Every structure is written in C-alpha cells, then in structure tokens.
C-alpha cells in the first residue's frame, strides 16, 4: 500500500469542540494511522485538563483505526492571516516551511517539540474575509512541528452538510420536492435509484417483487451484505445510509399482477422510471402513467445487450404511448425488437437472464436517471438547459449494425435521438373512451 503524503483528518466533533471551547488554545491528541500516513483527531482539551473525546461514526471505518498517538495543540486566531500563509506555503511544494523561531512570531502559542519528537498544530480562523476564502484559505489548517522547523500539512475537514454543499450550483431545494417512482430495481433500476438520490430527489418509491440473490451481484449496485433481502428493502438501506435527505418507500408489488396498486402510487409522484425487464411491465407502466397524467422514462437493453434504449413517454396529445411507438415501428417494416424479445419472455413472467455486462446496464441506468431529472427540471423549473433532443434514445453498447432503425447504430457509445409518433386514433391508452 502506498502511504501518500501525510495528512490530518478533523471529524465534525473535533471542529465543534475546538470552535466552541471557551479558551483560545489547548491540547489535542491524534490517532496516528501509520499505514495510511494519516492523523485523526481523537481528544480535544477544551478547558484546563478537561479532555473531550472525538467520536467518529462507525461507517468511517478507516478513520477509526487506532494506532499510536501523536500529541498536538490547537490555537484559535481571529483575524489572523495564518491560514492564507498555510495555503501559500503548501503551494510552494513538499518540505517548504518556516524555521521554528520565525513561525513562533506568527503563532506565539506554538509549543516546541523536544528532541526528535513531532507535534501537530491546528490553527483555527473563523469568519475570514470572502477574498481570503476565494484565495484558498480554509477555516482550519494543520502544521507539522519539529524542534527546528514547521511545515504545512494538508487537512481534511468533515463538511457540515450533505448535498447542500452543492447549493448555488444545483437546485438542491427544488430537488427535495420531487417524487419519483422506480419500477424494477434490478441492475438498471438499482443504478437509477442510486443516481436519483445522488441528484437529491426528495422522495423515491421503489417497486420490485424480487429478492436479491447471489447471482444478482455481478451486475447490481448492491453487494454481498444484501443477499437474501428483498431488493427494494436492500436499496432502501443502501440509500438511507448514504443519502439521508432522500425518503425511500419500498413496495414488493408485482407491477403486472398488481397493476391496480400502481394507479394511486403513480398519481402521487411527478415521474415514473421503468427499468423492469420483460415486455408486460413496460406496457403496464406506459398505460398507467399515461392515465395518471405523468411522464415515464422506460429504460432497457435489447437484442442480448447490443443496444440500450431510453424512451420518454409524456402525457400530451402530440406523443403516443409505448404501443403506439411499437405499432409505428412495425408498420415501417422494421424488425420489432421488443416483440422479438417477447417471444422469449412470453408474458413477461418468465425471466431470461439479461446478457449485457454490468457496466453496460449501469451506463443505460445513468442515462435514464439523467433523462428523468432533465424532464423534471424542464417541466417544473423551466430549465431549458435540461432539454433532450428527442423522446427516444438508442445507445450502441455492442452494436452489430444489422438491426432496423432506430436500433441501427453503427458504433459503440453512439447515441441516436428520435422523435416518437403521435397517438394512434384507436389507441385505448392515448384515447380513453374511444
Ligand atoms: Zn397510444
């Protein structure tokens, strides 16, 4: 293992304790993680001889490693430019620093290590001017002190918030208002759910009747910890741990046999993504989403993983449904790829293992999530940077170039966008009551 440049980690409990201490300096104790060249704050002296422990949450397993200890200190220096000097010095390269006596003029409280000992110093400067922060100064800086020399060290500070760090760059608050249903949380749908949570969608409804088993692992975002658990429950656990701002609702419904349960569910969300394999679930989603007046994104791979497909169905008079599109393609004389697939799937209840490799399915899932988010941004927030080039994207995964349009991709990673036809006059999905 390569140890990398030494660095200091300050978990949020250490920041709070340093920031709220009554006195302006004190001692610190660090765990030294030699194999990773890392020093993690372990105890903070907040008033004379009162040491408070720093708890590191269990999920940060590497930060909880308990090796030897290194003594240090912290100094609060309001108004000081010391952390700009840290930034400027570290930029000059490894090993550049200050003679101890020169550094003591900048930070009078610094203690000189004895003999060959090392010490660590944290300088804390709150409320820095904006231009200092723009210049790269950070509220907390770390220094390695020896008897003769002081050098700046990189420091990693635990952020106060999750996705709110993206404020100003991404509509974090608007995302929290969106509700999306994901039908099928297999290899594609698992990626879709994961990505929607990472985009910051506030409410996810996951629908899948299957259990996560050993053979699913080679393609799925879930791992060995989830084997034996219902896919929707395992995804909820995964998403809750990483993205606590996203509210996840699991349902072990079968979208075909329990289509009646989909109606109320779909009418309560802003958009539906269908990543279920098999033709029948896609037809149910196409029909029920249309009747609920909600847009749907259908994602799949076709022709044994040669081609990916992202289809957006919008509940507007100028867009047909899934069956209108398939009828249109069949009338155009092309091979109906989905119908060919249906011969293998039968009613959709017989499962044939997807033949695409995991990363190809994940690629399609990421694009489907992007199309879903873009649809929400454009529809609800009027964001024109979120416009798609069409309603149907076909994606070359391992294209054989012998399929009919729109699946006639020549090269891998080619993405071709197409429009979809208007509703057929007799379509019972697009024209209820006719
Ligand atoms: Zn239709």
Intertermini distance: 69 Å
Ligands (ions, cofactors included): zinc ion
Biggest beta sheet attributes: 10 strands, mixed
Order of helices and strands: EHEEEEHEHEHEEEHEHEHEHEHEEHHHEE
Global geometry: elongated
Task: Identify low-pLDDT runs.
Answer: 343-353
**Residues in β-strands, percent:** 15-25%
**Count of structural domains:** 2
| Helix-strand category | alpha/beta
List how many beta strands DSSP finds: 18
CATH class designation of the largest domain: Alpha Beta
From the 3D structure, determine the CATH topology of the largest domain: Rossmann fold
User: What is the CATH homologous superfamily assignment of the largest domain?
Assistant: NAD(P)-binding Rossmann-like Domain
Considering DSSP H and I runs of 4 or more, what fraction of the residues is helical? 25-40%
Description:
- This protein has 434 residues and is an alpha/beta fold.
- It has two domains: 7-157, Cytidine Deaminase, domain 2, CATH 3.40.140; 164-418, NAD(P)-binding Rossmann-like Domain (Rossmann fold, 3-Layer(aba) Sandwich).
- 29% of the residues lie in helices and 23% in strands.
- The chain has helices spanning 12-20, 82-91, 100-106, 130-134, 172-177, 187-199, 231-242, 259-267, 279-292, 322-331, 337-345, 358-381, and strands spanning 7-10, 25-33, 38-47, 50-53, 68-76, 98-99, 119-124, 140-145, 149-153, 155-157, 179-183, 203-207, 247-251, 271-274, 296-302, 307-313, 392-396, 415-418.
- Strands 1, 2, 3, 4, 5, 6, 7, 8, 9 and 10 form a ten-stranded mixed sheet that branches.
- A hairpin with a 4-residue loop joins strand 15 (296-302) and strand 16 (307-313).
- Helix 8 (259-267) packs across helix 9.
- The chain is elongated and about 85 Å long.
- The structure holds zinc ion.
